[in-house]
Amino acid sequence: MTKYILSIDGGGIRGIIPAVILAEIEKRARKPISQIFDLMAGTSTGGIVVAGLCKKDERGNLQYSANDLVEL
């Protein structure tokens, strides 16, 4: 069984680059990043991006898209 893993490195303000790329992947796939990857991890800024992509609201729906994080 194939598993898809997303690993995002840190880099301070350069964390915007993976967020922009992930926003484009979401746009093309027409689904949230968290539904594409089985495991997501990151260091430093990458960890913050991953946390944002996995955060759910009070109803259990994903709260932020990759594009939301780019705008943030």
SSE series: EHHEHH
Strand content: 5-15%
Question: Number of DSSP strands?
Answer: 2
Number of helical elements: 4
> Radius of gyration, rounded?
12 Å
* Average pLDDT level: 93
Strand order of the largest sheet: 1-2
Largest sheet: 2 strands, parallel
- Overall shape: globular
CA-CA gap between termini: 36 Å
Q: Into which percent range does the helicity of residues fall?
A: 40-55%
Report on the structure:
The chain is mainly alpha-helical and 72 residues long. It contains 4 helices and 2 strands. A two-stranded parallel sheet has the order 1-2. The termini are far apart.
Main features:
single chain; 72 residues; mainly alpha; two-stranded parallel sheet; 4 helices; 47% helix
Spell out the blueprint of helices and strands.
Blueprint: E1 5-8, H1 16-29, H2 33-36, E2 39-42, H3 45-54, H4 66-71
Parallel strand pairs: 1-2
